[in-house]
Amino acid sequence: SKLISLGQLEMTWRSRVHFNPLLVRVLHKSRLRYYGKPEKKMDMPYQAYFEVADGSGMMSMVLWNSLCPEWYNSIKVGTVLLLDQYAIKTSYPFKTQPTPGDSQMKRFATIEISLNVRDPPTQIRIVPEEMVKPEWGLPEVKYRFITRSELDDLPNNHSCDVIGLVTFVGRAERARKREHGEDFWLYRWAHAIDGTSDQPFILELFATSQPHVFEHIHPMTYLVCTQMRVVRDLTQNPSSTIYLTTSNESQIFITGWHKGQPYTKDTKVKNFIQWTKTQNEDDQMKKTVIGGYYPFPRPPNNFLKY
Q: Can you provide one Gene Ontology molecular function annotated for this UniProt record (predicted)?
């Protein structure tokens, strides 16, 4: 069929009524958002953002309402989609923006692709990876993996991906989203080592839309976290309070979920796997901890400083 590129779409969308099919690869995936309110009667008030790309650049794609339970888990980072009968809307200006792995990629930020059950009823097809042809010119998924030894030099809010061997995982804790609200964020702390430093990655992992992974992080698992943000407290000793926190587009993977993921081709991931083969499992097991209360960043030693 006659395809249209994202670049052509951005230039001509105002003058079109019907849009040709799109062939794109998913580069980023946000957590699922529930926007239901008691006074609004909606069956499935869900929404999820994806960043999709073809040879011309990258654009946001929004999955709405009942399409979310049907498609959210099937559409992964790296999935190739053929889209037909989609709608085009001007972009929502306050949405979070993931940091692309390829800094040269053009971003089309004025419009977004909207996928709905009706008006018009979108047709979504997943193209199996073995059927994807090089001549389609779809970009590969690229990552920004860092090692623990590189972390201390990174600025606050820098975006990166990490892989490590879990040595500590805390219990799940809750924090209020708003001071007097009834909604909570669920999160847990974890430590992971990669052999490049004496210090572990300190990870603040909020529950993403992957409960099957979040609940099963345990010591000695290989943990991959993508689209993490660097947090450093610049008021105190910056190196002692540096940690990584999840963003809206973070994906978390543990042993058992790595097979077939695009990051398995990354050099730093391969280096980490080589390092783990040199480690004695029993020695590492003795250093692992699970559960308990983990106050971080640590309070000062005396009350005057506090």
A: single-stranded DNA binding
